[in-house]
Amino acid sequence: NFSSCGVILDNLTVLSDFAGTRFRPLSFEVPKPLFPVAGVPMLQHHIEACAKVPNMKEILLIGFYQPNEELNRFLANVQQDFKISVRYLQEYAALGTGGGIYHFRDQILSGGPEAFFIMNADVCSEFPLSEMLDFQKKHGDTHSFVILGTTANRKQSMNYGCIVENQQSNEVLHYVEKPSTFVSDIINCGIYLFTPEIFRHIGAVFQKNQQDMLLYHYEGEEQTNGWQRVEVIRLEQDIFTSLAGQGKLFVYKTDRFWSQIKSAGSAIYASRLYLNQYHKTHPERLARNEEGGVKIIGNVYIHPTANIDPSAVLGPNVSIGTGVTIGAGVRVRESIILHGATLQDHSCVLNSIVGWDSTIGRWARVEGTPSDPNPNDPYAKIDSETLFTDGKLTPSITILGCNVNIPSEVIILNSIVLPHKDLNRSFKNQIIL
Ligand SMILES: Nc1nc2c(ncn2[C@@H]2O[C@H](COP(=O)(O)OP(=O)(O)O[C@H]3O[C@H](CO)[C@@H](O)[C@H](O)[C@@H]3O)[C@@H](O)[C@H]2O)c(=O)[nH]1
């Protein structure tokens, strides 16, 4: 009887490759999961949601990124703010979403958790974790696993893990990762509730990989990095596909906000979703119009250390980082301005990310093209845009890497500017190396 047994949550694992290849040039400066979304590092939203779950004891971050000062500072800050242990575990190589948690299974299980959440770092969500726990109690037995699912449109569903459910029991009957033809419009959100039992299933795949390796070895086939290959296990293809239809895997569908954060463009979209959520969760983080102050339109986050001229107009969906300086008559809309940047008088920034310590000259205009989901389709998701279509740069948000200088009175449109560049003229649809 599950309801009589108290769920003790001990661990949360956030998976991340911390590399963020589609996030360049911004991920040169900061690992993608620490990139600020709605004013705080992307992962802080996950951590905050976990810290709210009763009996949550510990949060583990798993990645293969070399820890640095910034990560250590982040860990210290969140532990202090949320009064919960948060540790980073570094993989020796990319072990895949299942291999990473299997490698660190002793650490995950060390506090004797009855259940734990696993989350992809590159998603933004309302994280209905308590609802997932309630759902688990109502469905299946104590050992059932829960995937958070949401509805996508037919075309976009194929970019995600697709789930066919039993509509009465919500059991996952079929799971196909990024199918090439339509399977289902219910997609995997990359947020799971597992019990320690999951490691038995991952262990079985690990053992099969091991046997296969030995077999190939005896047949004389060259094995480079053999062990590593044995340990690489993908939760989706290697585990969920075979668990489907076995009465163990269930889908909890949410219609609350959810999005992937793959590209810089999707970070602006995710910021918009989180800023909107702040009305409920953190109204103190939203800037307000005050007598004689800067004009705020819609949802705007301003770090208290930013220095903003009262004649500037900001919003909607703007996040201003630490120590940013904004001059007179500046207009910013749908953009993220990272710490230390300066927007000189009368400059205009639309649909852009302005990198750390960059400067935009007077009367300059930095503008991108938003890649938002179709507003007329309730199930549309943001497209993880490819950089090029038909050999041309796809019009997208403008990104200035760190320490870029834009002169006065120029226009930078739909462009990506690599760090430490001093531009001397206008650019349109270009990657400036
Ligand atoms: N630690 C670690 N993390 C990894 C590794 N490989 C991927 N990740 C992390 O695992 C998450 C999933 O990334 P991918 O494996 O690249 O999959 P995806 O294309 O993002 O698709 C996944 O997420 C979708 C939802 O956003 C799902 O729909 C889909 O089914 C799948 O789970 C990301 O946060 C990524 O950083 C690894 O070797 N080690």
From TrEMBL:
CDD domains cross-referenced by the UniProt entry? M1P_guanylylT_A_like_N
| Highest taxon of the lineage | Eukaryota
Q: Where is the Nucleotidyl transferase domain?
A: 19-207
Q: Which family does it belong to?
A: Belongs to the transferase hexapeptide repeat family.
Q: Which SUPFAM superfamilies match?
A: Nucleotide-diphospho-sugar transferases (SSF53448)
PROSITE patterns attached to this UniProt entry? HEXAPEP_TRANSFERASES (PS00101)
Q: Enumerate the spans annotated as Mannose-1-phosphate guanyltransferase C-terminal domain.
A: 296-432
The organism encoding this protein is: Scleropages formosus
Query: Do you know which InterPro entries this protein is assigned to?
Result: GMPPB_C, Hexapep_transf_CS, Mannose-1P_guanyltransferase, NTP_transferase_dom, Nucleotide-diphossugar_trans
Q: What name does this protein carry? A: GDP-mannose pyrophosphorylase Aa
What is a GO molecular function of this protein?
transferase activity
